[in-house]
Amino acid sequence: MSHDDTDAVACDGWDGSECEGTVHCPPRCPRFVDKEGARWTIRPAVREDAAPLAEMYEGFETADRAQGLPPVTRNRRAEWIESMLREGSNVVAERDGELFGHAMYTPTDADRPELAVFVHPTMQGRGVGTELCRHVIADAAAAGRDGLELHVESGNRIARRVYRTVGFELVDRRGDLRMELDLDDPIATEVRWPPLARLGPSEPETEEPPVAARSRPPADD
Description:
The protein is of the alpha+beta class. The protein contains seven helices and eight strands; from the N terminus they run E-E-H-H-E-E-E-H-E-H-E-E-H-H-H. A hairpin with a 5-residue loop joins strand 1 and strand 2 (39-44).
Protein backbone atom coordinates (compact mmCIF):
# COMPACT_ATOMS: atom_id res chain seq x y z
CA MET A 1 0.00 0.00 0.00
CA SER A 2 1.48 3.30 -1.04
CA HIS A 3 0.56 6.67 -2.43
CA ASP A 4 2.27 9.90 -3.33
CA ASP A 5 3.30 11.71 -0.16
CA THR A 6 1.78 14.89 -1.55
CA ASP A 7 -1.69 13.34 -1.29
CA ALA A 8 -1.64 13.65 2.49
CA VAL A 9 -0.81 17.34 2.39
CA ALA A 10 -2.88 18.43 -0.59
CA CYS A 11 -5.53 20.09 1.60
CA ASP A 12 -5.11 23.42 3.32
CA GLY A 13 -5.84 23.50 7.05
CA TRP A 14 -7.35 20.79 9.23
CA ASP A 15 -11.03 21.55 8.69
CA GLY A 16 -11.83 19.03 5.97
CA SER A 17 -15.60 19.24 6.38
CA GLU A 18 -16.00 20.84 2.94
CA CYS A 19 -13.55 18.49 1.18
CA GLU A 20 -15.09 16.67 -1.77
CA GLY A 21 -11.99 14.57 -2.45
CA THR A 22 -9.93 14.22 -5.61
CA VAL A 23 -8.69 11.38 -7.81
CA HIS A 24 -5.35 11.70 -6.04
CA CYS A 25 -6.71 10.97 -2.55
CA PRO A 26 -5.79 7.71 -0.79
CA PRO A 27 -8.65 5.28 0.03
CA ARG A 28 -9.45 7.29 3.19
CA CYS A 29 -8.50 10.83 4.18
CA PRO A 30 -5.30 10.67 6.27
CA ARG A 31 -6.33 13.54 8.54
CA PHE A 32 -8.01 12.68 11.81
CA VAL A 33 -9.03 14.68 14.88
CA ASP A 34 -9.50 12.53 17.99
CA LYS A 35 -12.09 12.84 20.76
CA GLU A 36 -9.86 15.30 22.64
CA GLY A 37 -9.31 17.53 19.62
CA ALA A 38 -5.74 16.37 18.89
CA ARG A 39 -4.65 16.18 15.25
CA TRP A 40 -3.35 12.93 13.79
CA THR A 41 -2.13 11.61 10.47
CA ILE A 42 -3.06 8.03 9.54
CA ARG A 43 -0.70 6.95 6.78
CA PRO A 44 0.77 3.84 5.13
CA ALA A 45 3.68 2.38 7.05
CA VAL A 46 7.13 2.30 5.44
CA ARG A 47 10.26 0.28 6.19
CA GLU A 48 11.71 3.18 8.15
CA ASP A 49 8.86 2.85 10.64
CA ALA A 50 10.27 -0.41 12.03
CA ALA A 51 12.37 1.31 14.72
CA PRO A 52 9.64 3.78 15.81
CA LEU A 53 7.15 0.89 15.99
CA ALA A 54 9.57 -1.11 18.13
CA GLU A 55 9.83 1.89 20.45
CA MET A 56 6.04 2.22 20.58
CA TYR A 57 5.59 -1.43 21.51
CA GLU A 58 8.10 -1.08 24.38
CA GLY A 59 5.28 0.61 26.29
CA PHE A 60 2.93 -2.41 26.06
CA GLU A 61 2.39 -4.43 29.24
CA THR A 62 0.88 -7.91 29.53
CA ALA A 63 -2.66 -6.51 29.73
CA ASP A 64 -2.12 -4.60 26.48
CA ARG A 65 -1.34 -7.73 24.45
CA ALA A 66 -3.83 -9.84 22.52
CA GLN A 67 -3.31 -13.39 21.25
CA GLY A 68 0.33 -13.07 22.29
CA LEU A 69 0.91 -9.93 20.22
CA PRO A 70 2.99 -7.88 20.25
CA PRO A 71 5.59 -10.48 21.32
CA VAL A 72 7.10 -10.04 24.77
CA THR A 73 10.81 -10.15 23.96
CA ARG A 74 12.54 -7.37 22.06
CA ASN A 75 14.03 -9.69 19.41
CA ARG A 76 10.72 -11.42 18.74
CA ARG A 77 8.96 -8.05 18.49
CA ALA A 78 11.49 -6.83 15.95
CA GLU A 79 11.02 -9.99 13.86
CA TRP A 80 7.23 -9.67 14.06
CA ILE A 81 7.28 -6.00 13.03
CA GLU A 82 9.54 -6.80 10.08
CA SER A 83 7.28 -9.65 8.97
CA MET A 84 4.17 -7.45 9.20
CA LEU A 85 5.83 -4.69 7.16
CA ARG A 86 6.96 -7.26 4.61
CA GLU A 87 3.84 -9.45 4.33
CA GLY A 88 0.98 -7.20 5.37
CA SER A 89 -0.70 -3.96 4.41
CA ASN A 90 0.10 -1.61 7.29
CA VAL A 91 -1.00 1.82 8.49
CA VAL A 92 0.31 3.85 11.40
CA ALA A 93 -1.19 6.63 13.52
CA GLU A 94 1.23 9.55 13.86
CA ARG A 95 0.94 12.56 16.14
CA ASP A 96 3.60 15.29 16.32
CA GLY A 97 6.05 13.01 14.51
CA GLU A 98 5.62 10.10 16.96
CA LEU A 99 3.85 6.78 16.31
CA PHE A 100 1.13 5.71 18.74
CA GLY A 101 -0.92 3.28 16.65
CA HIS A 102 -0.42 0.44 14.18
CA ALA A 103 -2.92 -1.62 12.19
CA MET A 104 -2.64 -4.07 9.33
CA TYR A 105 -4.27 -6.79 7.31
CA THR A 106 -2.26 -9.85 6.37
CA PRO A 107 -1.46 -11.63 4.13
CA THR A 108 -2.06 -9.10 1.40
CA ASP A 109 -2.90 -11.73 -1.24
CA ALA A 110 -5.61 -13.49 0.78
CA ASP A 111 -9.25 -13.09 -0.23
CA ARG A 112 -10.19 -12.54 3.42
CA PRO A 113 -7.03 -11.46 5.29
CA GLU A 114 -6.87 -10.95 9.03
CA LEU A 115 -7.03 -7.52 10.67
CA ALA A 116 -5.07 -6.55 13.77
CA VAL A 117 -4.91 -3.16 15.45
CA PHE A 118 -2.79 -1.83 18.33
CA VAL A 119 -2.88 1.55 20.08
CA HIS A 120 -0.37 2.68 22.70
CA PRO A 121 -1.94 2.42 26.19
CA THR A 122 -1.57 6.17 26.82
CA MET A 123 -3.63 7.00 23.71
CA GLN A 124 -6.49 4.56 24.08
CA GLY A 125 -10.07 5.77 24.42
CA ARG A 126 -9.60 8.64 21.95
CA GLY A 127 -11.00 6.96 18.84
CA VAL A 128 -7.59 6.22 17.30
CA GLY A 129 -8.17 2.45 17.13
CA THR A 130 -11.53 2.92 15.44
CA GLU A 131 -10.01 5.24 12.85
CA LEU A 132 -7.18 2.79 12.19
CA CYS A 133 -9.74 0.04 11.59
CA ARG A 134 -11.56 2.23 9.09
CA HIS A 135 -8.33 2.83 7.19
CA VAL A 136 -7.61 -0.90 7.00
CA ILE A 137 -11.15 -1.52 5.74
CA ALA A 138 -10.79 1.21 3.11
CA ASP A 139 -7.40 -0.10 1.98
CA ALA A 140 -8.60 -3.72 1.78
CA ALA A 141 -11.68 -2.68 -0.21
CA ALA A 142 -9.55 -0.60 -2.59
CA ALA A 143 -7.24 -3.61 -3.07
CA GLY A 144 -10.15 -5.84 -4.09
CA ARG A 145 -10.24 -8.10 -1.02
CA ASP A 146 -13.53 -9.96 -0.44
CA GLY A 147 -13.62 -9.35 3.29
CA LEU A 148 -11.70 -9.14 6.54
CA GLU A 149 -11.66 -11.32 9.62
CA LEU A 150 -10.20 -10.98 13.09
CA HIS A 151 -9.87 -12.81 16.38
CA VAL A 152 -10.57 -11.17 19.73
CA GLU A 153 -10.62 -12.46 23.29
CA SER A 154 -14.15 -12.88 24.60
CA GLY A 155 -13.38 -10.76 27.66
CA ASN A 156 -12.06 -7.80 25.67
CA ARG A 157 -15.30 -5.83 25.58
CA ILE A 158 -13.70 -2.56 24.48
CA ALA A 159 -12.13 -4.14 21.39
CA ARG A 160 -15.36 -6.00 20.59
CA ARG A 161 -17.30 -2.75 20.74
CA VAL A 162 -14.83 -1.05 18.39
CA TYR A 163 -15.07 -3.90 15.89
CA ARG A 164 -18.87 -3.86 15.98
CA THR A 165 -18.80 -0.11 15.42
CA VAL A 166 -16.92 -0.55 12.15
CA GLY A 167 -19.18 -3.34 10.93
CA PHE A 168 -17.67 -6.66 12.05
CA GLU A 169 -20.08 -9.42 13.02
CA LEU A 170 -19.50 -12.41 15.29
CA VAL A 171 -19.28 -15.69 13.36
CA ASP A 172 -17.62 -18.16 15.75
CA ARG A 173 -17.53 -18.37 19.56
CA ARG A 174 -15.14 -21.31 19.92
CA GLY A 175 -12.02 -20.19 21.81
CA ASP A 176 -11.24 -16.60 20.91
CA LEU A 177 -14.15 -14.95 19.13
CA ARG A 178 -13.91 -14.76 15.34
CA MET A 179 -15.52 -11.78 13.62
CA GLU A 180 -15.90 -11.01 9.93
CA LEU A 181 -16.75 -8.09 7.67
CA ASP A 182 -17.80 -8.54 4.04
CA LEU A 183 -16.34 -5.76 1.93
CA ASP A 184 -19.51 -5.50 -0.13
CA ASP A 185 -21.12 -4.21 3.07
CA PRO A 186 -22.13 -0.52 2.79
CA ILE A 187 -19.64 0.48 5.49
CA ALA A 188 -16.75 -0.57 3.21
CA THR A 189 -17.99 2.03 0.73
CA GLU A 190 -18.80 4.70 3.31
CA VAL A 191 -15.31 4.68 4.87
CA ARG A 192 -13.92 5.72 1.47
CA TRP A 193 -16.20 8.73 1.02
CA PRO A 194 -14.55 12.15 1.27
CA PRO A 195 -15.26 14.14 4.45
CA LEU A 196 -18.07 16.21 2.90
CA ALA A 197 -19.97 13.07 1.92
CA ARG A 198 -19.33 11.31 5.24
CA LEU A 199 -19.82 14.19 7.66
CA GLY A 200 -21.88 16.72 5.73
CA PRO A 201 -21.09 20.43 5.50
CA SER A 202 -20.21 22.28 8.66
CA GLU A 203 -23.07 24.38 9.95
CA PRO A 204 -22.68 27.82 11.52
CA GLU A 205 -23.64 28.13 15.14
CA THR A 206 -27.22 29.27 15.58
CA GLU A 207 -27.89 32.32 17.67
CA GLU A 208 -29.64 31.75 20.98
CA PRO A 209 -33.28 32.89 21.02
CA PRO A 210 -34.21 35.99 23.04
CA VAL A 211 -34.74 35.45 26.76
CA ALA A 212 -38.48 35.97 26.39
CA ALA A 213 -38.68 33.27 23.76
CA ARG A 214 -36.61 30.85 25.83
CA SER A 215 -38.78 31.35 28.90
CA ARG A 216 -42.09 30.83 27.11
CA PRO A 217 -43.62 27.48 28.16
CA PRO A 218 -44.02 24.83 25.44
CA ALA A 219 -47.34 24.63 23.69
CA ASP A 220 -49.64 21.73 24.49
CA ASP A 221 -49.73 18.84 22.02
